[in-house]
Design a protein that fits this description.
It contains seven helices and 15 strands. It is α/β, with parallel strands linked by helices and 220 residues long. It binds zinc ion.
């Protein structure tokens, strides 16, 4: 697993070159945002060095929650798990939207301690509702420096794109997107936050991302 220090409080973890998770330094330890796929557990624990306090998820897809059960098994009640409300209900077996959901929704034995909603705080991160890729998808705005952890609303693998747009170099993102119109609305909402740094689920982080986000929105 590759680790990249993005800011003084944010480290990017990358599995298989294209799946990211993030460690956020807080006063009481670390928040892990997303968990990548199952095999990531050892790499995450090594990078966190025993300081993991909570696991916050942008959405319920398998490449974001994949290592959750394994982490919970190792860390038990020393970590709190936070998941967006609707995606938590989907994982609990509720039918929250009509029809079949695209993307991978693996069976989880971990139940979140907290269901996240717009405006909630996770340490220094503010929860921003950004549905569309999944029904409950959220982004996290770092209030200390306006870094945006955008999950799968945008990808930067290859070039910056909104996940409602079918992009040949990374087609999985659009294929896994639940509602393309709602996803595009969320992308516009995230752009309007004027982030200083855009950190996404797939692809490298972008500094001063306004122009790149505008270009992606023009294709969305
Ligand atoms: Zn996804």
């Amino acid at each position: 697993m590759k680790t990249t220090a993005l800011t003084s409080t944010l480290t990017q973890l990358t599995q298989f070159r294209f799946v990211n998770a993030y460690l956020v330094q807080e006063e009481d330890g670390l928040t892990l945002v997303d968990t990548m796929m199952g095999k990531a557990v050892d790499g995450i624990l090594a990078a966190a060095g025993g300081a993991l306090r909570r696991i916050a998820l942008t959405h319920g897809h398998g490449d974001h929650v994949g290592a959750l059960d394994a982490l919970k098994e190792r860390l038990g009640d020393s970590v709190e798990v936070l998941m967006p409300e609707l995606d938590a209900r989907i994982h609990a077996g509720e039918q929250v939207v009509e029809g079949k959901l695209p993307g991978s929704w693996p069976q989880l034995s971990t139940r979140p301690d907290v269901r996240l909603a717009e405006g909630d705080r996770v340490g220094s991160l503010e929860v921003v509702a950004a549905p569309g890729h999944t029904p409950g998808h959220v982004a996290f705005l770092e209030t200390r420096d306006r870094t945006l952890i955008a999950g799968d609303v945008f990808t930067t693998y290859g070039s910056p794109q909104v996940t409602n747009h079918f992009y040949w170099r990374f087609p999985f993102a659009a294929m896994a997107t639940w509602d393309k119109r709602v996803d595009a609305e969320s992308a516009r909402k995230l752009r309007a936050l004027e982030p200083s740094l855009l950190a996404v689920g797939h692809g490298p982080a972008l500094r001063l991302p306004a122009a790149a986000m505008d270009a992606a929105l023009a294709r969305a």
